[in-house]
């Protein structure tokens, strides 16, 4: 049984008890099954009984009216959820070079790491320097620095400055007494006290 648009009700119909009736003209069954009205109205539905929704679905063709090129384009866009994308070639070359130079400078200064050697000799050299610097500290000291969220260093002013910033950010007046922040502050205080105690052995 095929359904064309002329056999579909122009307005919704309801039974006396309020039940939505099938949208097929002349049908008195409950319209319990939804079906999209068109490719461009996928969130706008007809309501059919089981018999008529089966007939409607049998004749449903999402790509009806589209050319082969339009269908191919639609299938291609499905891979990116129909969102725009750009080729890598669109990245500004000068900007990319500037980022690469800045990254190399950070490696040379030991401000970041390159454990997989993605940035070549500069990254590998910086990683060796970084590893050698960390080897000067005990595992407990390295863990304390990790708790504070900074790289191991014997620069006491830097440690103190970082601690003060953390203390302000985690203060109960700022966090509103958040329990997780309070626990984090306890860990930070313990790590800071431990490092200040250990600092006497660094000089």
From TrEMBL:
Species whose genome carries this gene: Tistrella mobilis
J domain ranges (all copies): 143-200
Pfam families the record matches: DnaJ (PF00226)
Lineage: Bacteria, Pseudomonadati, Pseudomonadota, Alphaproteobacteria, Geminicoccales
InterPro entries recorded: DjlA_DnaK_co-chaperone, DnaJ_domain, J_dom_sf
Protein known as: J domain-containing protein
Stored PROSITE patterns: DNAJ_2 (PS50076)
């Amino acid at each position: 049984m095929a359904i064309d648009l002329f056999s579909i009700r122009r307005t919704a119909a309801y039974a006396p008890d309020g039940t939505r009736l099938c949208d097929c003209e002349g049908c008195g069954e409950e319209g319990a099954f939804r079906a999209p009205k068109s490719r461009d109205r996928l969130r706008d539905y007809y309501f059919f009984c089981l018999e008529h929704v089966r007939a409607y679905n049998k004749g449903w063709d999402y790509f009806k009216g589209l050319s082969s090129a339009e269908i191919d384009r639609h299938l291609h866009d499905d891979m990116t959820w129909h969102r725009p994308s750009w080729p890598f070639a669109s990245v500004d070359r000068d900007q990319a070079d500037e980022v690469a130079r800045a990254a190399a400078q950070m490696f040379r200064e030991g401000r970041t790491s390159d454990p997989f050697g993605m940035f070549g000799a500069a990254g590998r050299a910086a990683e060796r320097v970084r590893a050698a610097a960390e080897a000067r500290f005990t595992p407990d000291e390295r863990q304390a620095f990790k708790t504070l969220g900074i790289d191991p260093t014997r620069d006491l002013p830097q440690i103190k400055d970082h601690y003060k910033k953390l203390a302000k950010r985690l203060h109960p007046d700022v966090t509103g007494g958040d329990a997780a922040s309070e626990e984090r502050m306890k860990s930070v205080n313990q790590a800071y006290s431990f490092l200040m105690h250990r600092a006497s052995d660094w000089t």
